[in-house]
Amino acid sequence: MKILFQARPDFMKNPAGDTVQIVSTGQALKNLGIEVHLSADPNVELSSYDLVHIFNITRIKESYMFFLNAQKQAKKIIISPIYWPPNAYLKREGANSNALAVWKHMQPMRSRLLGECDLLLPNSQIEMEVLRQDFLRHAPYQVTPNGFPDSFMGATPELFRKQFPDLPKEFILCAARISPRKNQHWLAKICEELDLPLVLLGPINDQNYYKNVKDFSNVTHIGTLQGELLASAYSAAKVHALPSWFETPGLSSLEASACGTVVISTDQGSPKEYFQDMALYVRPLDDMSLRTALEQSFNASPTPLMQHVQKQYPWSRVAEITLEAYHKVLDQGP
């Protein structure tokens, strides 16, 4: 089986959740013997591929071009929407006043992809329900969750501690690109009020926002970590907090929980479908919810969530579910 992944051209240069989903799904499928190629060319020749798998309808312009090209060449099309309506985020104080109008203007393009592709792979049933609310029609779907690297199981703090010996023994960790959507400024503010050290991992998406976050004296920004060192960082942290405006469900929350870390998550998006009652939840900009979650987190046990996530969400299992979806579409015939 030969599959073409298509994604926004800057998915490696400006990494986000879709980057991890694309790279990790692709590698796990290759481990199953599937030939996976990647292209950001909207005019790529498709005759040698069995199907086209398009990621992300939030950045719709590129995905729409990939879709038109695949449709023109009569290829089967699978879409991972990675969708959540950003209305509350785009209406927040300080947001671009045109952003919501632009989002709504693009909805007909999203609607066409959802209605005319062969299969949708939402990351959760909750995401699918939101797609149903926002769009009149949609293709068949199969829930295909996000995952964490299988190698993260059994992570220990030693490697991280050795590399960063000056960090406090107990700290809050937030691994995410530093941007208003991830809400690190709010997290830093409440952590400072509670006298809790905060360690940030991830690339800087917004320099002005980053400067405001770094103004808090309790914040240390390390940059981007990967692989074994990232797993060790999760393992070393007392708590991982991701109080974003929304997540589907937050890859770093999944990864942290697999490494045995207590998780504080936003309640917006699909985290509750993944973490159920085994994580602590906050509502964006409800100071009391974050304050309470941080206070409770130090007495919470990470074990139930760790066991649940390790069983349900390794990328190897996600790849098997994805491959099942491919077979479903290809077995339908032309």
TrEMBL record:
Statement: the UniProt record of this protein carries the keyword Transferase: yes
GO biological process terms on file: lipopolysaccharide biosynthetic process
Xref: InterPro entries: Glyco_trans_1
GO molecular function, one term: glycosyltransferase activity
The Glycosyl transferase family domain, residue ranges: 158-290
Superkingdom as given in the UniProt entry: Bacteria
Database matches in Gene3D superfamilies: Glycogen Phosphorylase B (3.40.50.2000)
UniProt keywords, alphabetically: Transferase
Keyword Transferase: yes
Protein name per the record: Glycosyltransferase
Organism (species): Desulfosporosinus youngiae DSM 17734
